[in-house]
Amino acid sequence: MIKIKDLQARVEEKEILRGINLEIGPGEVHAIMGPNGSGKSTLSSVIAGREDYEVTGGAIDFEGEDLLDLDPEERAHKGIFLSFQYPVEIPGVTVSNFIKTAINESRKGRGEEPMEAREMLAKMREKTALLEMDKSYLSRSLNEGFSGGEKKRNEIFQMAMLEPKLAILDETDSGLDIDALRIVANGVNKLRSEDNAVVVITHYQRLLDYIEPDFVHVLYNGKIVKSGDKNLALELEAKGYDWIKAENA
Amino acid sequence: MTDLAQDLLSSFVVAEAGLNGAKNLGVVNMRKEALDRFEATGFPTTRDEEWKYTNLKPVLKHDYKIMLKSESAVSFGDIKQYLLSDLDTYKLVFINGKYSSWLSESTHQSYDICTFAAALNKYPDILAEYLGKAAPAGETFVDLNTAFADDGAYIRIKANQTVDKPIEILYITTDENGTSFSQNRNLIIVEQNAEVQILERHQNLGDTESFTNFVSEVFAARDARVSYYKVQNDSDKASLVDNTHVKQASGSNVHVGTYSFGGKLVRNNLHFYSGGEHAESHMDGITIIGDGQTVDHHTLVDHQEPNCYSRELYKGIYLGKSHGVFNGKVLVRQKAQKTNAFQQNDNILLSDKAKVDTKPQLEIFADDVRCSHGCTVGQLDKNALFYLRSRGIPKREAEGLMTYAFASDALEYVKIPQLEKRLNGVIAEKLGINLEFAL
Ligand SMILES: Nc1ncnc2c1ncn2[C@@H]1O[C@H](COP(=O)(O)OP(=O)(O)OP(=O)(O)O)[C@@H](O)[C@H]1O
Ligand SMILES: [Mg+2]
Fold first, then answer.
1. Which of A134, A184, B302, B436 has the fewest C-beta atoms lying within 10 Å of its C-beta?
2. What average pLDDT does chain A have?
């Protein structure tokens, strides 16, 4: 589905990604772990198309197309979704108007008709129920005054509404209480299928107990320095990163 | 002295002979005195503190016709789009400064909704009581208007009356006179516990330059309620100096909303004189302008009595090479204890060629007051923009969505749903976006 080859990126003069190689197939779940500041969020942002980062080398191929040529919105239309580590507050735009606009702009981008109002409403009802969200969130300003956990839940609600092919969840577990973690993970699992893929960025095994990864990667200093199966995450949980750092010193 | 000022002075003699005010000695004297003051000062320049940021020279240089003819045939079809078509309203329509009874719908039934020209003749006592009592002598454009204005809207709502539908006032300029200099004047008297909603706009239908020097005096008696909406979306050939002066008695509530989307140069001098306890003064507005346009809001709230509230919220969005000015003066006199005055001016520059000068000006002589003020000039938040785009919303729409969200709280006090819808439509058009999400 997505093939990342020798991806290098920097911001201003600082090199952050130093040759990332990663291939993700449909139906797969990949976990990316790694110490703070290693470049995990940068990688997600570059995939989603944030213009602050300058790609200095390498390529990203998404379903046979060069992703790096596309605007962020075009990438979204192709089915890429990023759940932000720090969702942005947007006063004056309600959650429901926002999601309606996002869905219909994506449809338009794909040459489809807008969604019927009734279908939209039914879908919102279904997805708020799935994530056990109070419907009053829909009429609130996007993320404004939301608690940390509420913001994360709202990200997954948007994901559920948009049904992306590739969802990147950047520390979606941080800020969630124990029940919320279960609910959100359950929501993500419900959306999994043979056709879509999920990348989970996390620091903790906890989330991976619910969303079981097929592959686990360690990102360190702008590179993927180790890959394995779900046992790698357990090993990291037990041993920390010192041994990884030593291996790559 | 500019050529235009010279022309005005020499036209006065001719004008005076034909003015309706000739029958009203008080008014005749008032005009002469006003003209003398104008002769002494002339037009303001950027050396005047109050005109520091807005240069009138380029718009005053045209060879304006001062004594306007009004014979051209303007049909309802020509002006329909400038009226709220989906709402029944009273209408006062002026073509090149002269009242068109054909296009208007006035009344004398329970209230007077008619013309200034008629009032000059019919109600000399009322004129003597109110004319020039809100708009201060000594302000150049007010003086000039006082000297010349012979028509406009006259609205008098008697005590305890609520006007059954909004009043629309429309000032139309056509090509009939070539480049025209218009001076009309409203006199709006809302008596005790009466209520009225007024919409007003100036529209140049022609292809030649026009300059309008307009005065509106509003008197809100005890517990009166007034909503006054100004829609400024004129052609890029039209310039306007709007002098609106509102005098409030105790318990009155007056809202003036100014929505500026068009025109070449627009200067709004909006003054509130809060002269009775527990009066509420609301002024707000949205400015969205682009290449070659200037909108300048100069506001004053003069708190003269205790326990009053004023609220001022202006939002500005600037595209292309446009220029915005906001100067908000809040004066709290010594007697005006427990004044609560709020003022905020927020601006977004969507182009690096756009420019905003914003300045709050507080003069507080009472010690027990609550006054807050703030002004911001910024760009759209990049993180927020990326967030919206990453959800599939194209850049232009994302900018529009954020800009609309930024501006829309200044529409909160619009009480006429049809007008709110209209304004939303204009905002969408100006920002080049689809605003379905907001409607
Ligand atoms: N816009 C930016 N300007 C300057 N430095 C940046 C910018 N974005 C990222 N960086 C730097 O790049 C490095 C990688 O940051 P990134 O956010 O990708 O790390 P991370 O792996 O997601 O960390 P964490 O686990 O703390 O979320 C950090 O040193 C960070 O300070
Ligand atoms: Mg991160």
1. A134
2. 94
